[in-house]
Amino acid sequence: MRLFPSQYDLEKALTDITREAGPHLGLVSADVPLISNLDVWQNIALVCQCRQHRANKNVNSLVDQGLQRFGLEGIATKRNPSLSEEERFLVMLLRAAMVPEAVIVIDRLFRIIHCLADDSFVQKKLEKIEDMFTKCYIMDYSHNKNICEMTDAADGS
């Protein structure tokens, strides 16, 4: 997890990582919500269809396998308003992981999932899909340091 003392510093780092990742960017952010008139399955599949130009048969399999990794097969036909914060986050994470050679950037985790006591939930979920991305950055503010299990040198810790 990369922690930053200010919004300016965090947004500058996001801009740099976005530029570096280019077409491989898989952004998980409250600023990039799920498409409200699509169900969970369609929100995830859309990335495969647009970015990878895959046939529907391949897309079906990829999306189903992704949902199964998180045990979320039962929410495939739900829409955004009927999801819990955790489910919504995991759908956004799967959507980001569908980008070819994904560089996943989780922008302000605790803004997306307000009820987390720490970041262990996310770390466990990332382990389940670690073969679906090349890098992952979790970016948040330094004042959340006490609830983060993993940090790096971004904040000097």
Put simply, the count of helices is: 6
Sheet-strand content, in percent, reads: 5-15%
Please list the strands of the largest sheet in the order they lie side by side: 1-4-3-2
Largest sheet: 4 strands, parallel
Whole-number total of structural domains: 1
Main CATH class:
Alpha Beta
Topology pattern, helix = H, strand = E: EHEHHHEHHE
Mean pLDDT: 89
Q: Report the radius of gyration as a whole number of Å.
A: 15 Å
Textual characterization of the structure:
The protein has one domain: P-loop containing nucleotide triphosphate hydrolases (Rossmann fold, 3-Layer(aba) Sandwich), CATH 3.40.50. By secondary structure, it is an alpha/beta fold. The chain has helices spanning about 5-20, 40-50, 55-70, 85-95, 110, 120-130; strands spanning about 1-5, 25-30, 100-105, 135-140. Helix content is about 45%, strand content about 15%. The protein is built from 6 helices and 4 strands; from the N terminus they run βαβαααβααβ.
Key terms for this structure?
single chain; 157 residues; alpha/beta; Rossmann fold; 4-stranded parallel β-sheet; 4 strands; 43% helix; disordered C terminus
What's this model, at a glance?
This protein is an alpha/beta fold. It has helices spanning 7-21, 40-51, 56-69, 85-97, 109-112, 120-128, and strands spanning 2-4, 25-29, 102-107, 133-141.
Layout: helices, strands, pairs:
Layout: E1 2-4, H1 7-21, E2 25-29, H2 40-51, H3 56-69, H4 85-97, E3 102-107, H5 109-112, H6 120-128, E4 133-141
Parallel strand pairs: 1-4, 2-3, 3-4
